[in-house]
Amino acid sequence: MKTVVVGGGVVGLTTAYELASAGCEVIVLEAAKCGAAASHGNAAKIAIAESNPVPAPGVLLQGIKWMLKPDSPLSIRPSLAPGYLRFLLRMALHCNARDFETGLDLHLRLGADANELFDDYQRSGMDFEMHSRGVLLAFETGERFDEHCESLAVFESAGHIAEHLHGDAVQAAEPALSDRLKHGLFFPGDRQVEPDSLNGALLAKLDELGATVREGVSVNRFVRSGDTVTAVVTDDAEVLPTEAVVVAAGVPTGELLAQLGQKLPIYSGKGYSVDYSPPPVELRTSLTLEDARVAATPLNGMLRLAGTMEFGSRDDRVNEVRVEGIRRAAREAFHSWGEPEGEREAWAGSRPMTPDGLPVIGGLDIACNVYVNSGHSMLGLTLAPGSARLLTDIMLDREPSLGPELLARVSPNRF
Hints:
Blueprint lengths: L1 E5 L3 H12 L3 E6 L7 H4 L3 E2 L12 H7 L8 E3 L5 H12 L3 H14 L3 H10 L6 E2 L3 E5 L2 H8 L2 H6 L5 E4 L1 H6 L9 E5 L3 E3 L1 H14 L3 E4 L3 E7 L2 E7 L4 E3 L2 E4 L5 H6 L8 E10 L9 E4 L4 E6 L2 E10 L8 H14 L13 E7 L6 E4 L6 E5 L5 H16 L8 H7 L5
Parallel strand pairs: 1-2, 1-14, 2-10, 4-18, 6-16, 14-21
Antiparallel strand pairs: 3-9, 5-9, 6-8, 7-8, 11-12, 12-13, 15-18, 15-19, 16-17, 17-18, 20-21
Helix pairs in contact: 1-10, 1-13
């Protein structure tokens, strides 16, 4: 089956890999450079322990309270376009315990085989940096710790058991932490992946499998015959005949599908990261500083700090105030942080968000051979392998890993 995959981030590349491995003739179109957007600057980890959907009880109320604090973990820009305001209002409807827990359960199911699938990638010959250090969720206050523990039953039902740490046990688990971090949850199964090495490995494997990857090529329009897309027309007027289309373009996914008459509310949730090489501190494990919502991920010769959620931004420009909030969280959390050398240029990028916090995976009702794999918010790296396998199963009429009820919850037609 000849398939055009639109989008060369980690979700698009893993989807292309699954399709090419199944014998499909694949062409990947990437408007910029493959793996250069959110797939480059993410927190660099398979975050099973942090599979919470963004809409959670109280999250938007907290964001409103933080609106006057420019370096807060969550920012909602007050001057938003009407479409973005509708998006936030729809998200507010999902900020309840029931939707949160069912969304978490679905994410855990989608990510259940993430480690095994990444192991399969390496066994297939892909060479990328991956570590198995687990993750320590570190808390300053008992209130935040107790709040987080409310969802642990969902993790435990999926087989993810956290070790509870208090007092000196937190510093015993991670000696670099200051004693202001008084509580912790350690999940041993989480891993760390350097994203650029993964994207490079996927591109090399796609080349080996005979797939075509074209960078700097945008989609101008789709050619339709009834309810079928027969070709994709690029921005330089090239017509690419196809039997199937997968749109995995991150935030622009909604605009692309609007050409087909499909309304898909995917909007940007801007995040930031900053790398240090050499690392200012040597970490035993990956960390998330929960009160500041900042991840600290140790990689080979480097430490990545990542965090913040900014709703309403229309570009990927770096806001230095928000980056300084990430740096301050590190200074306060690590007793030997000091004045680090080797700080690289800060990164900002747009993560594709949906109002219910769930990804969009499946085929369109209005176009029988057009499929979507997008909307993974902050879990693109974590959910990419499982989502790619699931969509390939759907496209090739294989038995999918999710049942009909759960497939309906991630379907693009749910909106």
